[in-house]
Design brief:
Layout lengths: L1 H10 L1 H4 L2 H10 L8 H11 L2 H13 L5 H18 L10 H18 L16 H36 L2 H14 L6 H10 L3 E3 L5 E3 L1 H6 L7 H4 L1 H19 L5 H18 L3 H7 L4 H20 L12 H6 L8 H25 L21 H13 L6 E6 L3 E6 L7 H6 L4 E4 L4 E5 L4 H13 L36 E5 L6 H4 L6 E6 L3 E3 L4 E6 L5 E6 L4 E5 L12 E3 L6 E2 L4 E5 L1 H7 L5 E5 L7 E3 L3 E3 L7 E3 L1
Length: 635
Protein backbone atom coordinates (compact mmCIF):
# COMPACT_ATOMS: atom_id res chain seq x y z
CA UNK A 1 0.00 0.00 0.00
CA UNK A 2 2.77 2.44 0.89
CA UNK A 3 4.52 1.59 -2.36
CA UNK A 4 1.36 2.47 -4.25
CA UNK A 5 1.00 5.77 -2.39
CA UNK A 6 4.61 6.56 -3.22
CA UNK A 7 3.88 6.06 -6.90
CA UNK A 8 1.05 8.56 -6.60
CA UNK A 9 3.35 11.03 -4.87
CA UNK A 10 5.98 10.67 -7.55
CA UNK A 11 3.33 11.11 -10.22
CA UNK A 12 2.56 14.55 -8.81
CA UNK A 13 6.10 15.87 -9.20
CA UNK A 14 5.60 16.94 -12.80
CA UNK A 15 2.38 18.95 -12.31
CA UNK A 16 3.70 20.36 -9.02
CA UNK A 17 6.63 21.88 -10.91
CA UNK A 18 4.17 24.20 -12.69
CA UNK A 19 2.60 25.59 -9.52
CA UNK A 20 5.15 28.08 -8.15
CA UNK A 21 5.00 30.33 -11.20
CA UNK A 22 1.20 30.08 -11.23
CA UNK A 23 1.05 31.01 -7.54
CA UNK A 24 3.21 34.11 -8.03
CA UNK A 25 1.15 35.25 -10.99
CA UNK A 26 -2.05 34.75 -9.01
CA UNK A 27 -0.81 36.66 -5.95
CA UNK A 28 0.83 39.60 -7.72
CA UNK A 29 -2.23 40.11 -9.89
CA UNK A 30 -4.48 40.73 -6.86
CA UNK A 31 -5.93 44.19 -6.25
CA UNK A 32 -3.85 44.80 -3.11
CA UNK A 33 -0.60 44.38 -5.09
CA UNK A 34 -0.27 45.10 -8.82
CA UNK A 35 -3.99 44.92 -9.50
CA UNK A 36 -3.58 43.32 -12.94
CA UNK A 37 -6.45 40.88 -13.59
CA UNK A 38 -4.57 39.43 -16.55
CA UNK A 39 -1.80 38.13 -14.27
CA UNK A 40 -4.12 36.71 -11.64
CA UNK A 41 -6.25 35.03 -14.31
CA UNK A 42 -3.16 33.42 -15.82
CA UNK A 43 -2.15 31.97 -12.47
CA UNK A 44 -5.71 31.00 -11.59
CA UNK A 45 -5.89 29.03 -14.83
CA UNK A 46 -3.59 26.48 -13.19
CA UNK A 47 -4.43 26.85 -9.50
CA UNK A 48 -8.19 26.63 -10.12
CA UNK A 49 -7.76 23.49 -12.19
CA UNK A 50 -5.52 21.52 -9.84
CA UNK A 51 -8.00 18.65 -9.78
CA UNK A 52 -7.82 17.82 -13.49
CA UNK A 53 -4.08 18.56 -13.56
CA UNK A 54 -3.58 16.02 -10.79
CA UNK A 55 -5.85 13.55 -12.58
CA UNK A 56 -3.64 13.78 -15.66
CA UNK A 57 -0.38 13.73 -13.70
CA UNK A 58 -1.25 10.75 -11.50
CA UNK A 59 -2.58 8.65 -14.38
CA UNK A 60 0.49 9.47 -16.48
CA UNK A 61 2.83 8.62 -13.61
CA UNK A 62 1.09 5.34 -12.77
CA UNK A 63 1.28 4.14 -16.38
CA UNK A 64 3.84 1.37 -16.68
CA UNK A 65 5.29 2.99 -19.81
CA UNK A 66 4.56 6.69 -19.07
CA UNK A 67 2.37 6.85 -22.16
CA UNK A 68 0.18 9.84 -22.97
CA UNK A 69 -2.78 7.49 -23.39
CA UNK A 70 -2.88 7.13 -19.61
CA UNK A 71 -2.96 10.92 -19.20
CA UNK A 72 -5.96 11.04 -21.54
CA UNK A 73 -7.64 8.34 -19.45
CA UNK A 74 -7.10 10.42 -16.29
CA UNK A 75 -8.64 13.49 -17.90
CA UNK A 76 -11.61 11.52 -19.20
CA UNK A 77 -12.13 9.93 -15.79
CA UNK A 78 -12.24 13.36 -14.12
CA UNK A 79 -14.57 14.90 -16.69
CA UNK A 80 -16.99 11.98 -16.53
CA UNK A 81 -16.96 11.92 -12.71
CA UNK A 82 -17.48 15.64 -12.14
CA UNK A 83 -20.06 16.04 -14.91
CA UNK A 84 -22.15 13.03 -13.90
CA UNK A 85 -22.08 13.33 -10.12
CA UNK A 86 -23.71 16.77 -9.98
CA UNK A 87 -26.78 15.44 -11.77
CA UNK A 88 -27.44 13.38 -8.64
CA UNK A 89 -26.63 16.15 -6.17
CA UNK A 90 -25.67 19.55 -7.54
CA UNK A 91 -24.16 20.63 -4.21
CA UNK A 92 -21.39 18.02 -4.40
CA UNK A 93 -17.90 19.43 -4.88
CA UNK A 94 -15.20 16.84 -4.30
CA UNK A 95 -12.36 19.27 -5.02
CA UNK A 96 -8.88 17.92 -5.60
CA UNK A 97 -9.92 14.50 -4.32
CA UNK A 98 -11.94 14.02 -7.52
CA UNK A 99 -8.76 14.54 -9.53
CA UNK A 100 -6.71 12.20 -7.35
CA UNK A 101 -9.34 9.45 -7.56
CA UNK A 102 -9.72 9.92 -11.31
CA UNK A 103 -5.96 9.77 -11.87
CA UNK A 104 -5.64 6.56 -9.86
CA UNK A 105 -8.50 4.84 -11.68
CA UNK A 106 -7.34 6.08 -15.08
CA UNK A 107 -3.77 4.90 -14.48
CA UNK A 108 -4.81 1.49 -13.18
CA UNK A 109 -7.22 0.93 -16.06
CA UNK A 110 -4.51 1.89 -18.53
CA UNK A 111 -2.10 -0.69 -17.09
CA UNK A 112 -4.85 -3.30 -17.12
CA UNK A 113 -6.17 -2.78 -20.64
CA UNK A 114 -3.45 -1.05 -22.71
CA UNK A 115 -2.64 -4.30 -24.55
CA UNK A 116 -6.06 -5.95 -24.63
CA UNK A 117 -6.81 -7.83 -27.84
CA UNK A 118 -10.22 -8.39 -29.40
CA UNK A 119 -11.59 -10.61 -32.18
CA UNK A 120 -10.66 -9.57 -35.70
CA UNK A 121 -13.82 -7.57 -36.33
CA UNK A 122 -13.21 -5.46 -33.21
CA UNK A 123 -9.42 -5.33 -33.42
CA UNK A 124 -9.34 -1.59 -34.12
CA UNK A 125 -10.74 -0.89 -30.66
CA UNK A 126 -8.12 -3.01 -28.91
CA UNK A 127 -5.00 -1.86 -27.10
CA UNK A 128 -4.79 1.76 -25.96
CA UNK A 129 -7.89 2.73 -27.91
CA UNK A 130 -9.95 0.68 -25.49
CA UNK A 131 -8.65 2.48 -22.41
CA UNK A 132 -10.75 5.69 -22.78
CA UNK A 133 -13.82 3.54 -23.44
CA UNK A 134 -13.48 1.40 -20.31
CA UNK A 135 -12.45 4.47 -18.30
CA UNK A 136 -15.60 6.37 -19.23
CA UNK A 137 -17.78 3.37 -18.40
CA UNK A 138 -16.03 2.77 -15.06
CA UNK A 139 -16.23 6.39 -13.96
CA UNK A 140 -19.92 6.52 -14.82
CA UNK A 141 -20.48 3.75 -12.27
CA UNK A 142 -18.17 5.45 -9.74
CA UNK A 143 -20.04 8.74 -10.15
CA UNK A 144 -23.32 6.95 -9.52
CA UNK A 145 -21.98 5.47 -6.29
CA UNK A 146 -20.33 8.66 -5.01
CA UNK A 147 -23.39 10.71 -5.87
CA UNK A 148 -25.06 9.07 -2.89
CA UNK A 149 -22.04 8.15 -0.76
CA UNK A 150 -20.28 11.54 -0.72
CA UNK A 151 -22.95 13.85 0.80
CA UNK A 152 -22.84 12.06 4.20
CA UNK A 153 -19.08 12.67 4.26
CA UNK A 154 -19.68 16.37 3.72
CA UNK A 155 -22.31 16.37 6.46
CA UNK A 156 -19.80 14.88 8.90
CA UNK A 157 -17.41 17.68 8.06
CA UNK A 158 -20.12 20.25 8.67
CA UNK A 159 -20.85 18.73 12.10
CA UNK A 160 -17.15 18.79 13.01
CA UNK A 161 -17.02 22.41 11.91
CA UNK A 162 -19.79 23.40 14.29
CA UNK A 163 -17.87 21.87 17.21
CA UNK A 164 -14.61 23.52 16.20
CA UNK A 165 -16.14 26.98 16.14
CA UNK A 166 -17.25 26.74 19.75
CA UNK A 167 -14.38 24.87 21.44
CA UNK A 168 -11.91 27.71 22.18
CA UNK A 169 -8.18 26.94 21.93
CA UNK A 170 -8.80 23.25 21.27
CA UNK A 171 -11.26 24.16 18.57
CA UNK A 172 -8.67 26.40 16.93
CA UNK A 173 -6.12 23.58 17.11
CA UNK A 174 -8.58 21.06 15.69
CA UNK A 175 -9.38 23.49 12.89
CA UNK A 176 -5.70 23.80 11.96
CA UNK A 177 -5.26 20.00 12.06
CA UNK A 178 -8.29 19.21 9.91
CA UNK A 179 -7.61 22.13 7.60
CA UNK A 180 -4.40 20.39 6.50
CA UNK A 181 -5.57 16.79 6.87
CA UNK A 182 -8.55 17.32 4.59
CA UNK A 183 -6.57 19.19 1.93
CA UNK A 184 -6.30 16.25 -0.51
CA UNK A 185 -10.06 15.70 -0.40
CA UNK A 186 -10.91 19.34 -0.95
CA UNK A 187 -13.16 19.24 2.11
CA UNK A 188 -10.96 21.72 3.97
CA UNK A 189 -12.81 24.35 1.93
CA UNK A 190 -16.02 23.39 3.76
CA UNK A 191 -14.48 24.32 7.11
CA UNK A 192 -12.75 27.35 5.65
CA UNK A 193 -15.97 28.70 4.20
CA UNK A 194 -17.65 28.56 7.61
CA UNK A 195 -14.71 30.02 9.53
CA UNK A 196 -13.55 32.62 7.05
CA UNK A 197 -16.86 33.93 5.77
CA UNK A 198 -19.57 33.05 8.29
CA UNK A 199 -18.07 32.73 11.80
CA UNK A 200 -18.90 35.64 14.10
CA UNK A 201 -20.33 39.08 13.44
CA UNK A 202 -18.95 42.62 13.74
CA UNK A 203 -20.49 46.02 13.20
CA UNK A 204 -17.99 48.49 11.76
CA UNK A 205 -17.93 52.28 12.16
CA UNK A 206 -20.41 52.78 9.32
CA UNK A 207 -22.92 50.41 10.87
CA UNK A 208 -22.30 47.65 8.36
CA UNK A 209 -22.56 44.15 9.83
CA UNK A 210 -19.88 41.80 8.52
CA UNK A 211 -19.50 38.06 9.07
CA UNK A 212 -16.55 35.70 8.94
CA UNK A 213 -13.04 35.68 10.42
CA UNK A 214 -11.35 37.23 7.38
CA UNK A 215 -13.93 39.93 6.76
CA UNK A 216 -14.11 40.90 10.44
CA UNK A 217 -10.31 41.11 10.71
CA UNK A 218 -9.99 43.29 7.61
CA UNK A 219 -12.81 45.55 8.89
CA UNK A 220 -10.97 46.13 12.18
CA UNK A 221 -12.66 43.69 14.58
CA UNK A 222 -10.14 43.35 17.46
CA UNK A 223 -11.51 39.89 18.35
CA UNK A 224 -10.87 38.44 14.87
CA UNK A 225 -7.71 36.57 13.89
CA UNK A 226 -7.32 33.51 16.19
CA UNK A 227 -8.42 31.17 13.39
CA UNK A 228 -5.90 32.75 10.99
CA UNK A 229 -2.79 33.71 12.96
CA UNK A 230 -1.27 30.26 13.46
CA UNK A 231 -0.96 29.63 9.73
CA UNK A 232 1.79 32.26 9.30
CA UNK A 233 4.56 30.35 11.14
CA UNK A 234 3.68 27.19 9.18
CA UNK A 235 3.53 28.69 5.72
CA UNK A 236 6.35 31.21 6.05
CA UNK A 237 8.80 29.08 8.05
CA UNK A 238 7.66 25.52 8.75
CA UNK A 239 7.06 24.20 5.26
CA UNK A 240 10.09 25.93 3.71
CA UNK A 241 12.14 24.26 6.48
CA UNK A 242 10.53 20.94 5.53
CA UNK A 243 11.81 21.52 1.98
CA UNK A 244 15.29 22.10 3.38
CA UNK A 245 15.04 18.86 5.37
CA UNK A 246 13.96 16.90 2.31
CA UNK A 247 16.87 18.35 0.35
CA UNK A 248 19.34 17.51 3.10
CA UNK A 249 18.03 13.95 3.31
CA UNK A 250 17.97 13.36 -0.45
CA UNK A 251 20.39 10.99 -2.10
CA UNK A 252 23.58 12.77 -3.09
CA UNK A 253 23.17 12.04 -6.77
CA UNK A 254 19.57 13.32 -6.74
CA UNK A 255 20.11 16.63 -4.94
CA UNK A 256 20.89 18.58 -8.07
CA UNK A 257 17.70 17.30 -9.67
CA UNK A 258 15.29 18.11 -6.84
CA UNK A 259 17.09 21.11 -5.31
CA UNK A 260 15.66 23.68 -7.72
CA UNK A 261 12.13 22.37 -7.31
CA UNK A 262 12.28 22.36 -3.49
CA UNK A 263 13.69 25.88 -3.40
CA UNK A 264 11.01 27.25 -5.72
CA UNK A 265 8.06 25.68 -3.90
CA UNK A 266 9.55 26.64 -0.51
CA UNK A 267 9.98 30.26 -1.59
CA UNK A 268 6.44 30.26 -3.00
CA UNK A 269 5.08 29.14 0.35
CA UNK A 270 7.06 31.80 2.23
CA UNK A 271 6.08 34.63 -0.07
CA UNK A 272 2.50 33.86 -1.05
CA UNK A 273 1.30 31.26 1.47
CA UNK A 274 0.44 28.78 -1.29
CA UNK A 275 1.55 25.48 0.19
CA UNK A 276 -0.02 22.80 -2.01
CA UNK A 277 3.14 22.32 -4.13
CA UNK A 278 5.07 21.34 -0.98
CA UNK A 279 2.35 19.29 0.63
CA UNK A 280 1.58 17.22 -2.43
CA UNK A 281 5.30 16.58 -2.91
CA UNK A 282 5.38 14.35 0.21
CA UNK A 283 1.70 13.72 0.99
CA UNK A 284 1.62 10.39 -0.85
CA UNK A 285 5.29 9.55 -0.82
CA UNK A 286 5.29 9.60 3.00
CA UNK A 287 1.82 9.90 4.56
CA UNK A 288 3.34 9.81 8.06
CA UNK A 289 5.04 13.15 7.43
CA UNK A 290 1.77 14.64 6.29
CA UNK A 291 0.02 13.63 9.50
CA UNK A 292 2.91 15.16 11.45
CA UNK A 293 2.54 18.33 9.40
CA UNK A 294 -1.19 18.48 10.17
CA UNK A 295 -0.51 18.01 13.90
CA UNK A 296 2.15 20.73 13.90
CA UNK A 297 -0.28 23.07 12.18
CA UNK A 298 -2.81 22.44 14.93
CA UNK A 299 -0.15 23.09 17.58
CA UNK A 300 0.86 26.36 15.89
CA UNK A 301 -2.76 27.50 15.89
CA UNK A 302 -3.13 26.71 19.60
CA UNK A 303 0.12 28.48 20.55
CA UNK A 304 -0.84 31.62 18.61
CA UNK A 305 -4.24 31.55 20.34
CA UNK A 306 -2.64 31.14 23.79
CA UNK A 307 -0.27 34.07 23.10
CA UNK A 308 -3.22 36.29 22.13
CA UNK A 309 -1.94 36.91 18.60
CA UNK A 310 -4.45 38.33 16.14
CA UNK A 311 -3.32 38.49 12.54
CA UNK A 312 -5.09 37.73 9.30
CA UNK A 313 -4.92 37.61 5.55
CA UNK A 314 -7.00 38.33 2.51
CA UNK A 315 -5.33 35.69 0.35
CA UNK A 316 -3.12 33.35 2.38
CA UNK A 317 -0.65 33.39 5.26
CA UNK A 318 2.50 34.34 3.36
CA UNK A 319 4.95 37.20 3.77
CA UNK A 320 2.97 39.47 1.45
CA UNK A 321 -0.17 39.31 3.56
CA UNK A 322 1.88 39.47 6.77
CA UNK A 323 3.28 42.83 5.69
CA UNK A 324 0.10 44.21 4.09
CA UNK A 325 -2.05 43.54 7.16
CA UNK A 326 0.62 44.26 9.76
CA UNK A 327 -1.11 47.48 10.85
CA UNK A 328 -4.34 45.67 11.68
CA UNK A 329 -2.65 42.91 13.70
CA UNK A 330 -2.24 42.39 17.43
CA UNK A 331 1.18 41.11 18.61
CA UNK A 332 2.30 40.27 15.03
CA UNK A 333 6.03 40.10 15.88
CA UNK A 334 5.31 37.10 18.08
CA UNK A 335 4.54 35.20 14.86
CA UNK A 336 8.08 35.80 13.57
CA UNK A 337 9.58 34.38 16.78
CA UNK A 338 7.16 31.47 16.56
CA UNK A 339 8.11 31.06 12.91
CA UNK A 340 11.82 30.69 13.66
CA UNK A 341 11.06 28.05 16.28
CA UNK A 342 8.60 26.34 13.94
CA UNK A 343 11.23 26.20 11.20
CA UNK A 344 13.71 24.52 13.52
CA UNK A 345 11.10 22.02 14.70
CA UNK A 346 9.99 21.19 11.16
CA UNK A 347 13.54 20.68 9.96
CA UNK A 348 14.51 18.52 12.92
CA UNK A 349 11.41 16.32 12.89
CA UNK A 350 11.28 15.91 9.11
CA UNK A 351 14.98 15.17 8.75
CA UNK A 352 14.96 12.72 11.67
CA UNK A 353 11.91 10.81 10.45
CA UNK A 354 13.06 10.75 6.82
CA UNK A 355 16.51 9.37 7.66
CA UNK A 356 15.52 7.17 10.59
CA UNK A 357 12.53 5.54 8.89
CA UNK A 358 13.93 5.78 5.36
CA UNK A 359 10.86 7.65 4.17
CA UNK A 360 10.58 8.13 0.42
CA UNK A 361 10.48 11.89 0.06
CA UNK A 362 11.58 13.62 -3.18
CA UNK A 363 15.10 12.55 -4.02
CA UNK A 364 14.90 9.33 -1.98
CA UNK A 365 12.55 7.27 -4.18
CA UNK A 366 13.51 3.73 -5.07
CA UNK A 367 15.35 3.77 -8.37
CA UNK A 368 13.61 0.69 -9.68
CA UNK A 369 10.34 2.56 -9.47
CA UNK A 370 11.63 4.77 -12.26
CA UNK A 371 11.52 1.99 -14.78
CA UNK A 372 8.85 2.75 -17.33
CA UNK A 373 9.57 -0.18 -19.59
CA UNK A 374 7.68 -2.96 -17.90
CA UNK A 375 7.57 -6.30 -19.67
CA UNK A 376 4.30 -6.75 -21.51
CA UNK A 377 4.38 -10.49 -20.92
CA UNK A 378 3.92 -11.26 -24.65
CA UNK A 379 7.16 -12.99 -25.66
CA UNK A 380 5.94 -13.52 -29.21
CA UNK A 381 5.60 -9.80 -29.86
CA UNK A 382 8.93 -9.18 -28.14
CA UNK A 383 10.74 -11.71 -30.31
CA UNK A 384 9.08 -10.34 -33.42
CA UNK A 385 10.16 -6.85 -32.40
CA UNK A 386 13.76 -8.07 -32.11
CA UNK A 387 13.73 -9.55 -35.63
CA UNK A 388 12.00 -6.49 -37.08
CA UNK A 389 14.63 -4.16 -35.64
CA UNK A 390 17.41 -6.34 -37.02
CA UNK A 391 15.76 -6.45 -40.46
CA UNK A 392 15.62 -2.65 -40.38
CA UNK A 393 19.39 -2.51 -40.04
CA UNK A 394 19.67 -2.83 -36.27
CA UNK A 395 18.98 -0.37 -33.49
CA UNK A 396 21.76 1.91 -34.71
CA UNK A 397 19.95 2.46 -38.00
CA UNK A 398 16.59 3.43 -36.46
CA UNK A 399 16.10 7.07 -35.51
CA UNK A 400 12.35 7.11 -34.77
CA UNK A 401 9.42 4.69 -34.61
CA UNK A 402 5.82 5.70 -35.21
CA UNK A 403 2.75 3.93 -36.55
CA UNK A 404 -0.67 4.47 -38.05
CA UNK A 405 -3.59 2.06 -38.30
CA UNK A 406 -1.66 -0.72 -40.04
CA UNK A 407 1.87 0.51 -40.78
CA UNK A 408 5.10 1.17 -38.99
CA UNK A 409 6.37 4.59 -40.03
CA UNK A 410 10.09 4.76 -39.41
CA UNK A 411 12.89 7.26 -39.72
CA UNK A 412 16.15 5.45 -40.46
CA UNK A 413 19.69 6.55 -41.18
CA UNK A 414 20.01 4.48 -44.35
CA UNK A 415 16.98 2.92 -46.05
CA UNK A 416 19.19 0.91 -48.39
CA UNK A 417 20.26 -1.53 -45.66
CA UNK A 418 16.65 -2.38 -44.70
CA UNK A 419 15.88 -5.97 -45.71
CA UNK A 420 12.39 -6.48 -47.13
CA UNK A 421 13.01 -10.23 -47.32
CA UNK A 422 13.78 -10.47 -43.59
CA UNK A 423 10.86 -8.24 -42.67
CA UNK A 424 8.43 -10.49 -44.55
CA UNK A 425 10.01 -13.57 -42.99
CA UNK A 426 8.95 -12.24 -39.60
CA UNK A 427 5.41 -11.23 -40.41
CA UNK A 428 5.51 -7.98 -42.41
CA UNK A 429 3.28 -7.80 -45.48
CA UNK A 430 5.35 -5.29 -47.38
CA UNK A 431 7.94 -2.50 -47.34
CA UNK A 432 7.74 0.98 -48.80
CA UNK A 433 10.90 3.08 -49.05
CA UNK A 434 9.69 6.67 -49.15
CA UNK A 435 13.16 8.13 -49.45
CA UNK A 436 16.67 7.53 -48.11
CA UNK A 437 15.64 8.03 -44.48
CA UNK A 438 11.94 7.15 -44.32
CA UNK A 439 10.39 3.73 -44.70
CA UNK A 440 7.00 2.18 -43.99
CA UNK A 441 6.41 -1.45 -43.08
CA UNK A 442 2.94 -2.91 -43.53
CA UNK A 443 2.11 -4.94 -40.42
CA UNK A 444 -1.68 -5.01 -40.05
CA UNK A 445 -3.81 -4.21 -37.03
CA UNK A 446 -1.24 -5.64 -34.60
CA UNK A 447 1.07 -2.74 -35.46
CA UNK A 448 0.48 -0.89 -32.15
CA UNK A 449 1.73 -3.80 -30.03
CA UNK A 450 4.76 -4.36 -32.27
CA UNK A 451 5.66 -0.65 -32.25
CA UNK A 452 5.51 -0.50 -28.44
CA UNK A 453 7.69 -3.60 -28.13
CA UNK A 454 10.19 -2.10 -30.57
CA UNK A 455 10.36 1.14 -28.61
CA UNK A 456 11.08 -0.76 -25.40
CA UNK A 457 13.79 -2.77 -27.10
CA UNK A 458 15.38 0.25 -28.79
CA UNK A 459 15.62 1.98 -25.40
CA UNK A 460 17.83 -0.92 -24.25
CA UNK A 461 19.87 -1.47 -27.41
CA UNK A 462 17.75 -4.41 -28.69
CA UNK A 463 19.38 -7.20 -26.64
CA UNK A 464 19.10 -10.72 -28.04
CA UNK A 465 16.18 -12.59 -26.42
CA UNK A 466 16.75 -15.93 -24.70
CA UNK A 467 14.92 -17.66 -27.54
CA UNK A 468 14.51 -16.49 -31.12
CA UNK A 469 11.40 -18.60 -31.70
CA UNK A 470 7.87 -17.46 -30.91
CA UNK A 471 6.38 -19.64 -28.12
CA UNK A 472 3.94 -22.18 -29.51
CA UNK A 473 1.16 -21.05 -27.19
CA UNK A 474 1.36 -17.54 -28.66
CA UNK A 475 1.35 -18.46 -32.32
CA UNK A 476 -2.43 -18.42 -32.45
CA UNK A 477 -2.73 -15.03 -30.72
CA UNK A 478 -1.23 -12.99 -33.55
CA UNK A 479 -3.81 -10.53 -34.77
CA UNK A 480 -5.26 -11.54 -38.15
CA UNK A 481 -6.15 -9.20 -40.98
CA UNK A 482 -9.46 -7.46 -40.51
CA UNK A 483 -11.34 -6.96 -43.76
CA UNK A 484 -12.67 -3.55 -42.93
CA UNK A 485 -12.20 0.03 -44.04
CA UNK A 486 -12.96 2.89 -41.70
CA UNK A 487 -14.63 5.91 -43.23
CA UNK A 488 -11.59 8.10 -42.58
CA UNK A 489 -9.25 5.60 -44.30
CA UNK A 490 -10.91 5.73 -47.74
CA UNK A 491 -10.54 8.79 -49.93
CA UNK A 492 -12.29 9.77 -53.16
CA UNK A 493 -9.97 8.47 -55.91
CA UNK A 494 -10.76 11.14 -58.51
CA UNK A 495 -12.78 14.33 -58.92
CA UNK A 496 -16.26 13.37 -59.99
CA UNK A 497 -19.84 12.45 -59.13
CA UNK A 498 -20.68 9.41 -57.02
CA UNK A 499 -23.61 7.33 -58.25
CA UNK A 500 -25.12 4.09 -56.94
CA UNK A 501 -23.67 0.95 -58.47
CA UNK A 502 -27.15 0.06 -59.74
CA UNK A 503 -26.99 3.08 -62.07
CA UNK A 504 -23.79 1.94 -63.80
CA UNK A 505 -24.81 1.09 -67.40
CA UNK A 506 -23.32 -2.40 -67.31
CA UNK A 507 -25.30 -5.37 -65.98
CA UNK A 508 -22.28 -7.20 -64.58
CA UNK A 509 -21.36 -4.24 -62.35
CA UNK A 510 -24.89 -3.00 -61.67
CA UNK A 511 -26.08 -6.36 -60.30
CA UNK A 512 -22.98 -6.68 -58.07
CA UNK A 513 -21.85 -9.86 -59.86
CA UNK A 514 -18.25 -8.86 -59.10
CA UNK A 515 -19.02 -7.46 -55.68
CA UNK A 516 -20.56 -4.38 -54.03
CA UNK A 517 -19.30 -0.88 -54.68
CA UNK A 518 -20.28 2.41 -56.29
CA UNK A 519 -19.78 4.29 -59.51
CA UNK A 520 -18.02 7.54 -60.34
CA UNK A 521 -18.62 9.87 -63.28
CA UNK A 522 -15.07 11.32 -63.39
CA UNK A 523 -14.25 14.95 -64.10
CA UNK A 524 -10.57 14.83 -63.12
CA UNK A 525 -7.75 13.50 -65.25
CA UNK A 526 -5.77 11.59 -62.62
CA UNK A 527 -6.82 8.52 -60.63
CA UNK A 528 -5.37 8.29 -57.13
CA UNK A 529 -5.19 5.44 -54.64
CA UNK A 530 -8.16 5.66 -52.27
CA UNK A 531 -6.42 3.58 -49.58
CA UNK A 532 -3.11 2.46 -48.12
CA UNK A 533 -2.24 -0.86 -49.71
CA UNK A 534 -0.48 -2.71 -52.50
CA UNK A 535 -1.10 -2.68 -56.24
CA UNK A 536 -1.84 -6.33 -57.06
CA UNK A 537 -3.02 -5.93 -60.65
CA UNK A 538 -2.22 -3.50 -63.45
CA UNK A 539 -4.09 -4.65 -66.54
CA UNK A 540 -1.99 -4.71 -69.73
CA UNK A 541 -4.62 -2.48 -71.34
CA UNK A 542 -4.17 -0.02 -68.44
CA UNK A 543 -7.92 0.50 -68.04
CA UNK A 544 -8.18 -1.10 -64.58
CA UNK A 545 -6.12 -1.43 -61.44
CA UNK A 546 -6.51 -3.82 -58.50
CA UNK A 547 -5.42 -2.87 -54.98
CA UNK A 548 -5.46 -4.85 -51.74
CA UNK A 549 -5.63 -2.72 -48.59
CA UNK A 550 -3.40 -3.22 -45.58
CA UNK A 551 -6.40 -4.86 -43.93
CA UNK A 552 -7.00 -7.36 -46.75
CA UNK A 553 -9.85 -5.73 -48.70
CA UNK A 554 -9.48 -6.16 -52.48
CA UNK A 555 -10.55 -3.20 -54.62
CA UNK A 556 -10.95 -3.09 -58.40
CA UNK A 557 -11.11 0.33 -60.05
CA UNK A 558 -12.36 -0.07 -63.63
CA UNK A 559 -12.09 3.18 -65.60
CA UNK A 560 -14.94 3.41 -68.11
CA UNK A 561 -16.95 0.65 -69.75
CA UNK A 562 -15.58 -1.56 -72.52
CA UNK A 563 -12.35 0.46 -72.31
CA UNK A 564 -10.40 -2.83 -72.60
CA UNK A 565 -10.96 -2.50 -76.36
CA UNK A 566 -8.90 0.72 -76.45
CA UNK A 567 -5.71 -1.29 -75.86
CA UNK A 568 -4.25 1.29 -73.48
CA UNK A 569 -5.00 4.38 -75.54
CA UNK A 570 -6.10 7.27 -73.32
CA UNK A 571 -4.31 5.87 -70.26
CA UNK A 572 -0.87 6.32 -68.70
CA UNK A 573 -0.01 4.04 -65.77
CA UNK A 574 2.01 5.60 -62.95
CA UNK A 575 2.51 2.50 -60.76
CA UNK A 576 3.71 -1.05 -61.16
CA UNK A 577 2.25 -4.34 -60.04
CA UNK A 578 3.45 -5.21 -56.52
CA UNK A 579 4.11 -1.59 -55.59
CA UNK A 580 3.04 -0.36 -52.15
CA UNK A 581 0.97 2.81 -52.24
CA UNK A 582 -0.49 5.26 -49.78
CA UNK A 583 -3.85 6.93 -49.98
CA UNK A 584 -3.47 9.84 -52.38
CA UNK A 585 -0.66 8.33 -54.50
CA UNK A 586 -1.25 8.81 -58.25
CA UNK A 587 -2.12 5.57 -60.09
CA UNK A 588 -3.28 6.44 -63.57
CA UNK A 589 -3.41 9.40 -65.95
CA UNK A 590 -6.60 9.72 -68.02
CA UNK A 591 -7.37 11.47 -71.29
CA UNK A 592 -11.06 12.04 -70.62
CA UNK A 593 -11.65 13.71 -73.99
CA UNK A 594 -10.35 10.66 -75.85
CA UNK A 595 -12.13 8.22 -73.55
CA UNK A 596 -15.43 10.06 -73.85
CA UNK A 597 -15.22 9.97 -77.64
CA UNK A 598 -14.13 6.32 -77.97
CA UNK A 599 -15.70 4.38 -75.08
CA UNK A 600 -19.40 3.66 -74.46
CA UNK A 601 -19.14 5.39 -71.08
CA UNK A 602 -16.55 6.94 -68.76
CA UNK A 603 -18.48 5.81 -65.69
CA UNK A 604 -15.91 4.20 -63.38
CA UNK A 605 -17.05 1.38 -61.09
CA UNK A 606 -15.15 0.94 -57.78
CA UNK A 607 -15.73 -2.68 -56.75
CA UNK A 608 -14.87 -4.54 -53.52
CA UNK A 609 -14.30 -8.08 -54.71
CA UNK A 610 -13.64 -10.19 -51.60
CA UNK A 611 -16.12 -9.09 -48.95
CA UNK A 612 -17.61 -12.07 -47.13
CA UNK A 613 -19.77 -11.24 -44.17
CA UNK A 614 -18.85 -7.54 -44.18
CA UNK A 615 -21.24 -4.79 -45.17
CA UNK A 616 -20.43 -1.86 -47.46
CA UNK A 617 -22.13 1.42 -46.66
CA UNK A 618 -21.78 4.34 -49.10
CA UNK A 619 -21.96 7.51 -47.04
CA UNK A 620 -21.88 10.22 -49.72
CA UNK A 621 -23.28 10.75 -53.21
CA UNK A 622 -23.11 13.55 -55.73
CA UNK A 623 -20.09 15.63 -56.72
CA UNK A 624 -16.99 15.06 -54.56
CA UNK A 625 -13.41 16.31 -54.70
CA UNK A 626 -10.52 13.86 -54.96
CA UNK A 627 -9.20 13.02 -51.49
CA UNK A 628 -12.53 13.57 -49.71
CA UNK A 629 -12.89 11.03 -46.90
CA UNK A 630 -15.98 9.50 -45.27
CA UNK A 631 -17.12 8.28 -48.69
CA UNK A 632 -17.85 4.81 -47.37
CA UNK A 633 -17.08 2.31 -44.67
CA UNK A 634 -16.82 -1.47 -44.53
CA UNK A 635 -17.40 -3.40 -41.35
Amino acid sequence: MFGFLQKIGKSLMFPIATLPAAALLLRFGQDDLLGIPFLSAAGAGIIDNLAIIFAIGIAFGLAHDSNGGAALAGAIAYLVLTSAIVTINESINMGVFAGILSGIIGGLLYNKFYNVKFPAWLAFFGGRRFVPIITAATMTVVAGILGYAWPPVQEMIDGAGDWILNAGMFGVGAYGFFNRLLLPTGLHHVINTIVWFDFGTFTDATGEVVRGEINRFLKGDPTAGPFLSGFFPIMMFGLPAACLAMYAAAKKERKAIIGGMLFSIGFTSFLTGITEPIEFSFMFLSPLLYVVHALLTGVSMMVAYALDVHHGFGFSAGAIDFILNYGLAQNPLVLLVMGLGTGVIYFAIFYFLIVKLDLKTPGREDEDAEDGNADTGNKGIDIRAYHTIEALGGSGNIAAVDYCTTRLRLTVKDADIVSEKDLKRHGAMGLMKINKTNVQVVIGTAVEFLADAMKNRLANGNPTPESLDVPAEELSTEAELVKEIRSEDFGMPIDGEIIPLSEVPDEVFAKEMMGPGFGIIPSGNTLYSPVDGQVVTVFPTKHAIGIVTDTGVEILIHVGLDTVKLNGEGFETLVEQGQLVQRGDALLKLNLTYLGANAPSVVTPVIFTNLTGQELEVLKTGSQKQGTVSILKIQ
